[in-house]
Amino acid sequence: MKLEELLVYQNIVIQCHDKPDADTIASGFALMKYLESKGKRPRLVYSGTPKITRGSLHAMIQRFEIPLIYLEQPEGEAELLVTVDCQAGERNVTALPHRNLAVIDHHTVRAGEWLPDLHDVRTEAEGYASCATVLWAMLTEAGFPVEEDRHLPTLLYYGLYMDTQELKTVRKMDKLMLDSLKCDMDLVVELQSVNLSLEEIQITGRAYNSLHINQKHRFLVAQVESCDPDILGIVGDELMKVAGVDVSAAYCILEKDQGAKISVRCRRRGHSAVDLIQWLVRDMGNDGGGAPTKAAGRIPRDFLKEACAGDTWDDLSGAAGRLFYRLLSDYFEVPPAQIRAQTYTPGDEDAFCIAGTALYRKKKVPVGYVRAADLFPVGEEILLRMLEGDTRKKVTPELYIMIGVDGETYHNEERQLRRNYDLLDEPFCPDSASPWQPVLYRYADRMVKPLKPYAKKCVAKDGALIWAAQLKCRVKVLTKWGEWHMGEAGDWLISRNDDRQDVYIIQETIFKRTYELAGQTGAFHEE
Question: Rounded to whole angstroms, how far apart are CA atoms 122 and 393?
Answer without folding.
Answer: 23
